[in-house]
Amino acid sequence: xxxxxxxxVLVKKSWDILKKxxxxxxxxxFRKVFEIAPGAKSMYSFLRDSTIPFEENPKVKNHARYVFMxxxxxxxxxxxxxxxxxxxxxLQKLAATHINAGVTDDQFEIVKEAILYAIEMGVPELWSxxxxxxxxxxxxxxxxxxxxxxxxxx
Length: 154
Ligand code: ISQ
Prior knowledge:
Bound molecules: isoquinoline
Number of helices: 8
CATH class: Mainly Alpha
CATH superfamily: Globins
CATH topology: Globin-like
Oligomer: single chain
């Protein structure tokens, strides 16, 4: 098994801290995505024609917080359950949203890099190679389920 009990413990411990500042951590997450892939802004109607910095856009602030919370809440449930059981009723809609946005499989790697960066910024005191691989594996499991559902729907 890739995702061990130790991984689960590390993810849960760090998430307890990260979720307390989901707004700031979510913004760090989104900022990194747009830094790596500026073109990703065009996925959001509310960013496409916007000239103000994205973190001043209230819609983005809410969305960044929401996506960060959803990812972390799903990640902490892995272990007892697999990704399919965790995402469950959300999976179909999540996959459909990503298909509609034109997301490709390789773009999941950008989001992985960005979320790991936001976690490092959010809990520098807990950051370690072990924490990085625990979150990386959690992300990979969730992403695999979303990608598989996207392929199934297409
Ligand atoms: C899509 N899914 C998750 C995170 C994201 C961050 C920025 C842009 C698109 C995204």
